[in-house]
Write a structure and sequence with these properties.
Elements lengths: L8 H9 L12 H9 L2 E5 L6 E5 L22 E3 L4 H7 L4 E6 L4 H16 L5 E6 L4 H4 L9 E6 L2 E7 L4 H14 L4 E2 L2
Parallel strand pairs: 3-5, 4-5, 7-8
Antiparallel strand pairs: 1-2, 4-6, 6-7
The protein binds zinc ion (ZN).
The site of zinc ion has 8 residues, from loops.
Length: 191
């Protein structure tokens, strides 16, 4: 009855305009779903005793502890990476790693810092949010040819997958992470 008589373009509009800061666990393209739900491990160095740990990030809310010193792994705040830890952490993390390349003297970086903190708390269990001090970690920074800071890069499987320069509010950081999570391997060019 009356089939096809009415089409509702509003549906399509709503869908296209949605920017969703919330978690979106399983709705992605078939092939990537399995990997995403199973691949939740990351290799992180304990910030207290410097031991490397293989951590199941999805259990962030169980407050995982360092296998060596038993102190908490602090997955709900930005992880500070340096020349020693950057490559291994990014390469061995199965979850996305968002890195804020910043410097202490940079005003916009300071402006963005609370949003980065907030993002780390909101995405604990789904992604790693990290910070790299570009003045101190020059070896880690050099390969990325970063011209302005802050620059935010999302890595997946050790590879750069999305990049945005300039200070961003929380919503933008979150949608960068969400777009990225939804789109799997697809590379996004923001700049
Ligand atoms: Zn430790």
């Amino acid at each position: 009855m009356d089939k096809g008589a009415k089409s509702l373009p509003e549906h399509r509009l709503q869908f296209a305009d949605t920017t969703c800061p919330k978690r979106n666990p399983e709705k992605t393209l078939g092939a990537t779903v399995k990997d995403d739900s199973a691949a939740t491990k990351a290799t992180l160095r304990c910030q207290f005793c410097q031991s490397w740990n293989r951590v199941d990030v999805s259990r962030a809310h169980d407050r995982p502890k360092c296998g060596s010193c038993s102190k908490p792994m602090l997955l709900d705040r930005p992880l500070h990476l340096d020349d020693e830890t950057f490559s291994r952490t990014v390469a061995e993390s199965e979850v996305p790693v968002m890195v804020d390349f910043y410097a202490d003297w940079c005003g916009p970086c300071k402006m963005m810092a609370p949003a980065v903190d907030q993002l780390a708390a909101a995405y604990a269990g789904k992604a790693i949010v990290a910070k790299v001090n570009t003045d101190l970690a020059q070896r880690a920074t050099a390969p990325f040819n970063i011209r302005g800071i802050p620059t935010t890069i999302v890595f997946r499987g050790g590879k750069e997958s999305a990049r945005q320069s300039g200070a961003m509010p929380y919503q933008m950081l979150a949608s960068m992470m969400d777009t990225f999570q939804h789109s799997g391997i697809r590379s996004l060019e923001f700049t």
